[in-house]
Automatic annotation (TrEMBL):
Record flagged with keyword Transferase: yes
Catalytic activity: L-isoleucine + 2-oxoglutarate = (S)-3-methyl-2-oxopentanoate + L-glutamate; L-valine + 2-oxoglutarate = 3-methyl-2-oxobutanoate + L-glutamate; L-leucine + 2-oxoglutarate = 4-methyl-2-oxopentanoate + L-glutamate
Organism field: Paenibacillus vini
GO MF, one annotated term: transaminase activity
Keywords: Amino-acid biosynthesis, Aminotransferase, Branched-chain amino acid biosynthesis, Pyridoxal phosphate, Transferase
Pfam families hit by this protein: Aminotran_4
Name assigned to this protein: Branched-chain-amino-acid aminotransferase
Xref: InterPro entries: Aminotrans_IV, Aminotrans_IV_CS, Aminotransferase-like, B_amino_transII, BCAT-like_C, BCAT-like_N, BCAT_family
Taxonomic path: Bacteria, Bacillati, Bacillota, Bacilli, Bacillales
Its EC number(s): 2.6.1.42
Gene symbol of the encoding locus: ilvK
Family assignment from sequence similarity: Belongs to the class-IV pyridoxal-phosphate-dependent aminotransferase family.
């Protein structure tokens, strides 16, 4: 990979109102691009003005979905510094996804350097309001013009930046979900553990149905027996049952979330037992009926912590934590965002000042 070149935008865009950002609707002035050609490797990294890219209509990504992406965030800290949260974890996962999708590996250090330079250049776009951040979206697409089904010989890596508010309009307020027992998100041996567009595309129909029925998200079950809980919406999921916290074990069809890992580390540091194991929807509802289900929440980079207030399975609907944000959910949200924004100590070295 040769040296990063920077072409600055001549006209800078007006910044959006940071009280009404929504999620992923605005994009900064610049983006990072880099190409891969078989025999040459990754080459010509450059930061250029943000804008459309030209692709051949036969580019393989359009036809067979050979793509991977990541999601991470940058913050302005209380002391006016700029930070990334655990970027090493995201870049490691990017290469795990690349391997699954037969996309060439990327040098994580060089990519982190490129992302750091991009965020530094567009640092005025990092919003400072509560529940806001600069979302960083690295992604790789197969660009070779060819209709044959095989690994492409040409790729493009891009990194785009978006100032964001809460992912869900509910923010840290509880969402309602239903147990999806028709469609599945991922199957054993499939691509569930990779961050690739197909996993999300296949989930959209269930999400649309959930919306029509008045729910925010669906609780995904395993694709083999439709019995064990895997994820919630596009997030990992946790349940506090009888004093201990349970999250589905990484089975191959579940994404290894960076927030999932941070939540487990924090809970354990607070002396709370966290168990990674299979948990069936029947066990979950049984615990709820017996009054043992204390809290349920989703975890992800975009929403951080999303408490679950109600759950519906077939005809049965239960309230969790009285439909309120539970104590652990709130403490986790405050701790993670506090570390991210530099208002709390960073005992695990997760804040990466750039
Ligand atoms: C996340 O929770 O960070 C996600 O994966 C959601 C993203 C697809 C917007």
């Amino acid at each position: 990979m040769n040296k990063l070149t920077i072409v600055k935008a001549e006209n800078l865009k007006a910044k959006p109102d940071s009280d009404h950002l929504g999620f992923g609707q605005y994009f900064t002035d610049h983006m990072l691009v880099m190409d891969y050609t078989e025999g040459k490797g990754w080459h010509d990294p450059s930061i250029v003005p943000y804008g459309p890219i030209a692709l051949d209509p036969s580019a393989m990504v359009f036809h067979y979905g050979q793509e991977v992406f990541e999601g991470m965030k940058a913050y302005k800290t209380a002391e006016g510094q700029f930070s990334l949260f655990r970027p090493d974890m995201n870049l490691k996962r990017l290469n795990i996804s690349c391997e699954r999708m037969s996309i060439p590996q990327v040098d994580p250090e060089l990519l982190l350097d490129g992302i750091t330079q991009l965020v530094s250049l567009d640092k005025d776009w990092i919003p400072e309001g509560e529940d806001t951040s600069l979302y960083i979206r690295p992604f790789i697409i197969a660009t070779e013009p060819c209709l044959g089904v095989r690994a492409a010989k040409q790729y493009k890596l891009l990194v785009i930046l978006s100032p964001v508010g809460s992912y869900y309009p509910e923010g840290i307020h509880p969402v309602s979900i239903f147990v999806e027992d028709e469609y599945v998100r991922a199957v054993r041996g499939g691509t569930g553990m990779a961050k690739t567009s197909g996993n999300y595309a296949s989930g959209i129909r269930a999400q649309e149905i959930a919306k029509l029925e008045g729910f925010s998200q669906v609780l995904w079950l395993d694709g083999v027996e439709k019995k064990y809980i895997e994820e919630v919406g596009s997030m990992n999921v946790f349940f506090k049952i009888g004093g201990e916290v349970i999250t589905p074990e990484l089975s191959g069809s579940i994404l290894a979330g960076v927030t999932r890992d941070s939540v487990m580390t924090l809970l354990r540091s607070w002396g709370i037992q966290v168990i990674e194991r299979k948990i069936s929807v029947a066990e979950l509802f049984e615990a709820a009926r017996e009054g043992k289900l204390e809290e349920a929440f989703g975890t992800g980079t975009a929403a951080v912590i999303s408490p679950i207030g109600t759950m519906k399975w077939g005809e049965e609907q239960i309230a969790v934590a009285g439909g309120q944000t539970g104590e652990i959910s709130k403490k986790l949200y405050d701790s993670i965002t506090g570390i991210q924004k530099g208002v709390l100590e960073d005992p695990f070295g997760w804040r990466n000042i750039i």
